[in-house]
Amino acid sequence: MKIKASSFSPALAALCNLALAYVVYMLCRVVYVWENWNLFAPGWEALPKGDLLRGALRFDSAAIFYTNTLYLALMLLPLHLKERRWWHTMTKWIFVVVNALAVAINLSDAVYSQYTGRRTTSTFFSEFSNEGNLGTIFTTELVNHWYLVLAAIAMTALLWFLYTDVDDPGRESRQTGLAPYYAVQTALFLLLFPTAIVAIRGGATRTTRPITLSNANQYVNQPHEAAIVLNTPFTLIRTIGKTTFVDPGYYTPDQLEAIYTPLHSSNQAFRQSSNPKNVVILIVESFGREYIGYYNRHLEGGHYKGYTPFVDSLLERSLTWQTTLANGRKSIDGMPSVLSSIPMFVEPFFVTNYSLNHVGGIAAELGSRGYSSAFFHGAENSSMGFQAFARATGFGDYYGKDDYDKDPRFDGEEDFDGAWAIWDEPFLQYFAAKIGEMREPFVTALFTASSHHPFALPERYREVYPEEALPIHKCIRYTDNALRHFFATASREPWFKNTIFVITSDHTNSSNHSEYMTSIGVYAAPILIYDPSGELPTGMMPGVAQQIDIMPTLLGILGHDKPYIAFGKDLLATPADSTWAVNYANGIYQYLQNDTLIQFDGEHVTAAYKLSADTLMKHPLPTHPAWHETRVKAIIQQYMSRMINDKLKIEN
Fold first, then answer.
1. In sequence order, which ranges of 445-544 are alpha helices (DSSP H)?
2. How do residues 118-156 score in pLDDT, each as one tens digit?
């Protein structure tokens, strides 16, 4: 019902409409939590509900005043123009359009956040700037999430029909006279600015710094829960044009080098001098550790089989570790982590101002020893910025969908999935064929695509792999089978037995087991090293492995004899109790070593957990190991300093 407000002054009407914006933002939050309930359900009972509400209002205030300051200024301007009907028609349209856009952004992010574990920031636009298929993806999502479209329409209708209008704009000046009218209107207009500043900054005291995304963590228990408190218009606005990396200056240069350095010297313990090994790295889209039966024999009372029978069989003959983790939550985080040993801190390296830094990587390091190299990705060649990164890190060749389409041995466009890339099965066969054309020794990497939203399958596999507990499960089965066919083809090639294979994922995806929904569980990704020659050890080793360890471990196996920069460690040259992992989530750094995880906000340790006794991270420890905090500070400072000063690579 439309509110009749002929007795309302423009200021009072603006206040009512501001309250309406708060209601709509809160409704968007309810929908966001409902759509992502699996992510938040494990810790929901323990969340401080009063703190959630206070935090939500604080961040909503910032976003609402950011986006509605023009509307408020037009309503409060001390001008007689406000007494015209067209003026208030204009301000109504501004209010409704701006806040309807905020609704659409919030509800769209309810879907996208399922795959990133956080609210979207401004780097989203850089991340997908080269994609030509976003229209198809967006249309598919509109159909799949029609109920969110209806919710957006309903909330926009609320904004329109519950908008408080001023039916008699000139009444106030007629009743009070011009002098009092202008005095009051000027005072209200001037009051708007300090009010907006306080709301946008998140506080009124002189010591209050403008709130950022990380401030949301003070209202929740776990980093991924910060998304409940935040709203997407705020996260987009607050990250536009911001400096991503700042050197925290925790230690002097000498102290820093003594605690931690990413500079690696040569390690020849496993040198393969007479016959250098080839390297094949498979980065499998969304291939979370949860889906793999080998890692999860304890689940579901010991009856869990997983969705990867082939990878399970390969793991029986491979080297892996008790804990294996990704260093990011997006596809563009995986490639720098795996191939250049650069973790994701704050924002994906690809889309920061530092992406033009000189960057090393396994291709460049092995290239200095005469290796040929190539990177493969079944999407269009410019997709995700992978081609640019591959070239910058030393890969000699790049093969994508454009090249696949031109190869007469394959079916070209007929093998396109209609959304992202060539289906995994044919593209992996193309990969095997192109490897056979490379000069040995070689290093090559492939990024798969089929186990990706919108979780489709080729027509001939839709009955073979029906829907299961989660939409991604059928795609995991399909990709596992595609890997089976790839290894069957590769095993017949002369280069196979002289090759080291690595399989990992770019990041994880949706889960249906609680231990994979925690702040560390969402990073659980497989890492396996398979050597068909049998020269490497096999089995599940104790300790912690992460994606950024892959490059230094491989270089150690190959006896690389030159110094290089890598933020990870050589797993085969590091005692199990000295292995560690680090990642970043919503303003919180997580550091894991010796079964103890700490969460660090850049200034203080906010929580610590003993994971063996507290898998679901519900019981914080009263104290934490001092070394964990010392080490994570040093890692952060080395990362920031080297990013800022362009010292990610040793120039030979």
1. 471-490
2. 787 766 655 555 555 656 656 666 777 889 999 999 999
Say yes or no: 215 and 303 in one domain: no
| Residue showing tokens 């995806």 | 509
Residue 553 lies in a domain: yes
Rounded CA gap, 76 and 609, in Å? Answer: 52
The number of angstroms, rounded, from the C-alpha of 69 to the middle of its chain's C-alpha atoms is 31
Tally: H helices and E strands in the chain: 21, 14
Count of alpha carbons within 13 Å of 46, Cβ hemisphere only?
Answer: 13
Structure tokens at 328: 């990011």
Q: How far from chain centre, in Å, is Cα 575?
A: 30
- Indicate whether 149 and 225 sit together in one domain: yes
Domain match, 210 and 312 both: no
- Enclosing H/E stretch for 546: strand 539-546
* Number of alpha carbons in the 13 Å side-chain half-sphere of residue 9: 14
- Note the pLDDT tens digit of each residue in 454-499: 889 999 999 999 999 999 999 999 999 999 999 999 999 999 999 9
Helices (H), ranges, 439-564: 471-490, 550-557
Low-confidence stretches of the chain (pLDDT beneath 70): 1-8, 80-82, 115-117, 122-141, 167-182, 184, 204-209, 214, 217-218, 223, 241-243, 266-274, 351-353, 356, 652
**Three-state DSSP string of 163-191:** CCCCCCCCHHHHHHCHHHHHHHHHHHHHH
Q: Choose among 277, 343, 212, 289: nearest CA to 648.
A: 343
Q: Are 263 and 128 in a shared domain? A: no
Q: Is residue 1 part of a domain?
A: no
Q: How far apart are CA 371 and CA 141, in angstroms?
A: 43
User: Is residue 283 included in any domain, yes or no?
Assistant: no
Quote the domain boundaries for residue 89: 10-239
- Based on the domain organization, do 222 and 318 belong to the same domain? no
- Rounded Cα–Cα distance for residues 33 and 19 (Å): 21
SS (H, E, C) 345-402: ECECHHHCCCCCCCECCHHHHHHCCCCEEEEEECECCCHHHHHHHHHHCCCCEEECHH
Amino acid letter, 200: I
Per residue in 372-412, pLDDT tens? Answer: 999 999 998 877 778 878 888 899 999 999 999 999 999 99
Q: Give me the torsion for CA of 415, 416, 417, 423, rounded to 10°.
A: 50
Tell me, what CATH number does 476's domain have? 3.40.720.10
The total of structural domains in the chain comes to 2
Say whether both 30 and 122 belong to one domain. Answer: yes
Q: Does 247 fall in a domain?
A: no
Q: Which residues of 465-502 are buried (b: 16+ CB within 10 A; e: fewer)?
A: beeeebebbbbbbbbbbbbbbbbebbeeeeebebbbbb
Find, among 590, 645, 582, the residue nearest to 342 by Cα: 582
Clarify whether residues 527 and 426 are in a common domain. Answer: yes
The region, left, alpha or beta by phi > 0 then psi within -120 to 50, assigned to residue 23 is alpha
Taking the model in full, what pTM does it have? 0.76
Q: What dihedral angle (degrees, nearest 10) is formed by the CA atoms of 261, 580, 247, 645? A: 40
Judgement on whether residues 554 and 599 belong to the same structural domain of the protein: yes
- The CA dihedral of 503, 349, 220, 57, to the nearest 10 degrees, is -140
